Inverse folding.
């Protein structure tokens, strides 16, 4: 027995020592940054690219990119923040710009301020504005949601329209074209989810207004742009030039399946459009149609989001450094995600590169990125406030009334009543 | 040293007894009593996210001026008034049909009708969403056999969306209620039916005058649990409408509104707690009314 102990003791000690040093080494080396985001064709793919770039210079950092649906990211984030336990939360989370102020104001201290580390003067000012609270800037500005009118050249050609005919449309002209497209090809002009107010938001912002004024007060009954937007959506619905969609994936299906002739939405949809290789060369991009009211433009914004670091994160310093290195400085990275995914970043220095000059074969050799870049400069700036989700719900609640012939002014009053009940 | 006394008030002072139930009591206090009291306290506060402050009855006053809450309440009560009677009657009829010992293959029928309620709520909602899509199997079947000329907008029209929710929950829960009735039917003495048959009572009268009165306690039980289930309706609506309760808030339920107030809108945990107490009160009142109605008829 004694011999046995003597024989094995050094081995056991050596083994224990090796174990301890292994643990120590791995604790110092393996740092994992957990990231929550949505959309596998866009944010998730882009974050993987960013992570791969950072790992090249920082081999000790690994990334765990978790792909949820957007509503699930928001729900999990909100639950985690409300519970006050940090264990369930990621290190970095993606937040849509409409919701940024909501999180910053209702969970003070939950997000790490990045002012001082990140040079915000290099970013589009409107993106920095949505993440500023009490003089501190939180988050890393990411993509812009500059909008465009994607159209199927083949369908429009069958209906007798050339790409020139799609430039600088008005919404009324768009509806006329839609009726002719349906008459000649049997295809609907667009997919429309009556539960989603995205189109109303696009049209409203293109004329420089939002649900809220600059002070954040509700701006509904006297809002000419919102009124015109509702009228336009009402006309599209009563002209029946749309294919109804129930929910996001259903809506995406309307154009990936080739059932509709156009898509009016943010530039981030490009990756999804291009995910259908058999439709290569059939798509073109034009500026969105304009309203016929004062302040109307052909440029607008839908969505767009930014990265936020949680104050409670154990890898806070590494997370901030990662975002700053890649999203704050890496021009080449922005070129790549633009060409691969259609991500129009908000780092101004990344605007001039070769990728913006390049022609895209998927779009028949058009220089689409140059166009989006031009339109981005023309997007009217508005204050998203903190109640966009509530206002959206109020608008979708009234869309059926609009198609049943209720006067727009009464619809606006009903929307106003619902919003004032919700914002307190 | 106090010895354990048996019987009377003495057993309340028995330390050993208390020690035995202490773990269970502790868990109940931690996971039941504390959250209930805390949510009650929360319902008197309001504010954005973590910035809550005491508002007294402010949330209750807000309920009356909140068109979305009133819409959700109306929808929930519509589901309750329309769906629960349909389901209870359907379950009763199915149960008495399948209780017939001469029916061939009744085991298969019973299983088939009970099967929906062991499927996952989410899975079946997603399946229904696909089946009732504008170019889904239901619309194409209805068009093929010539019942409708153009597809029914099940998910995008306020009326049809509400109808779809009712169809979905009826499909899911009828079999569940039927099982209770089947169990109860088998406890009814067969000689009662034999006597009735010898006396020449027709089948329908046997159903209304023997089966239903004897099943009354079970009918009351299923009605109460269906009431509670319907007032808490969430999964079906959430999954059919991507969490929005649309179109036009037509399918929004109180539970979904609580979810929206907590997770989708500016988080207001206090107001959400108030709305959840509305459900508690409604369930209590409706259950009381049902017990009361059942007792009246006994006299």
């Amino acid at each position: 027995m004694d011999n046995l102990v003597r024989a094995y003791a050094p081995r056991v000690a050596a083994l224990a020592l090796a174990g301890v040093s292994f643990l120590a080494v791995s604790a110092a080396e393996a740092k994992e940054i957990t990231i929550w985001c949505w959309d596998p064709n866009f944010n998730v793919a882009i974050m993987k690219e960013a992570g791969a770039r950072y790992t090249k210079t920082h081999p000790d950092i690994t990334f765990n990119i978790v792909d949820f649906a957007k509503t699930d990211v928001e729900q999990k984030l909100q639950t985690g923040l409300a519970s006050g336990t940090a264990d369930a939360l990621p290190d970095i989370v993606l937040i849509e710009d409409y919701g940024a102020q909501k999180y910053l104001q209702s969970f003070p201290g939950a997000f790490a301020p990045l002012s001082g580390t990140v040079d915000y003067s290099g970013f589009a000012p409107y993106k920095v504005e949505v993440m500023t609270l009490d003089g501190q800037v939180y988050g890393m500005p990411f993509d812009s949601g500059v909008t465009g009118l994607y159209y199927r050249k083949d369908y429009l050609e069958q209906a007798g329209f050339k790409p020139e005919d799609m430039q600088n449309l008005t919404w009324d002209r768009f509806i006329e074209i839609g009726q002719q497209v349906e008459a000649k090809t049997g295809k609907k002009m667009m997919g429309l989810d009556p539960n989603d107010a995205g189109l109303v938001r696009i049209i409203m912002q293109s004329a420089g207004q939002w649900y809220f004024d600059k002070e954040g007060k509700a701006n509904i009954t006297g809002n000419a742009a919102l009124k015109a937007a509702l009228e336009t959506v009402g006309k599209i619905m009563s002209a029946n030039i749309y294919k109804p969609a129930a929910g996001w994936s259903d809506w995406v299906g309307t154009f990936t399946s080739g059932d509709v002739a156009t898509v009016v939405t943010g530039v981030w949809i490009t990756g999804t459009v291009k995910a259908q290789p058999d439709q290569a060369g059939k798509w073109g991009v034009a500026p969105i149609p304009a309203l016929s009211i004062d302040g109307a433009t052909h440029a607008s914004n839908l969505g767009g989001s930014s990265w936020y670091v949680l104050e409670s994160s154990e890898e806070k310093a590494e997370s901030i450094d990662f975002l700053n290195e890649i999203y704050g400085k890496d021009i080449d990275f922005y070129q790549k995600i633009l060409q691969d995914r259609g991500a129009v970043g908000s780092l101004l220095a990344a605007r001039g590169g070769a990728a913006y000059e390049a022609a895209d074969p998927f779009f028949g050799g058009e220089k689409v990125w140059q166009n989006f870049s031009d339109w981005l400069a023309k997007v009217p700036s508005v204050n998203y406030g903190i109640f966009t989700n509530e206002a959206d719900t109020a608008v979708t609640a009234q869309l059926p009334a609009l198609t049943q012939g209720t006067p727009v002014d009464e619809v606006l009053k009903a929307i106003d009543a619902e919003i004032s009940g919700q914002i307190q | 040293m106090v010895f354990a006394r048996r019987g009377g008030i003495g057993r309340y002072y028995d330390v050993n007894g208390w020690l035995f139930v202490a773990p269970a009591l502790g868990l109940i206090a931690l996971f039941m009593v504390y959250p209930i009291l805390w949510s009650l306290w929360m319902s008197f506060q309001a504010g954005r996210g973590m910035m809550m402050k005491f508002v007294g009855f402010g949330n209750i006053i807000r309920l009356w001026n909140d068109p979305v809450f009133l819409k959700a309440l109306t929808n929930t009560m519509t589901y309750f008034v329309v769906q629960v009677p349909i389901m209870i009657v359907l379950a009763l009829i199915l149960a008495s049909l399948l209780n017939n010992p001469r029916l061939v293959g009744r085991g298969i029928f019973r299983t088939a009708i009970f099967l929906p309620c062991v499927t996952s709520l989410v899975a079946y909602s997603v399946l229904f969403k696909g089946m009732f899509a504008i170019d889904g199997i239901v619309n194409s079947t209805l068009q093929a056999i010539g019942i409708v000329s153009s597809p029914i907008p099940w998910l995008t029209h306020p009326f049809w969306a509400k109808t779809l929710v009712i169809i979905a929950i009826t499909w899911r829960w009828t079999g569940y209620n039927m099982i209770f009735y089947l169990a109860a039917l088998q406890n009814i003495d067969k000689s009662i039916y034999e006597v009735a048959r010898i006396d020449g009572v027709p089948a329908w009268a046997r159903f209304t005058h023997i089966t239903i009165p004897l099943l009354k306690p079970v009918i009351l039980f299923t009605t109460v649990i269906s009431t509670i289930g319907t007032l808490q309706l969430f999964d079906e609506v959430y999954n059919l409408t991507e969490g929005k309760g649309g179109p036009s808030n037509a399918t929004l339920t109180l539970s979904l509104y609580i979810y929206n107030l907590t997770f989708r809108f500016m988080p207001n945990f206090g107001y959400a707690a108030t709305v959840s107490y509305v459900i508690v009160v409604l369930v209590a009142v409706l259950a009381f009314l049902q017990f009361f109605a059942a007792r009246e008829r006994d006299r």
Observations:
- Confidence is low (pLDDT under 50) at residues 22-28 of chain A.
- The first strand of chain A starts at residue 31 and ends at 37.
- The two ends of chain A are 78 Å apart (CA to CA).
- Chain A touches chain B through 40 residues (CB under 8 Å).
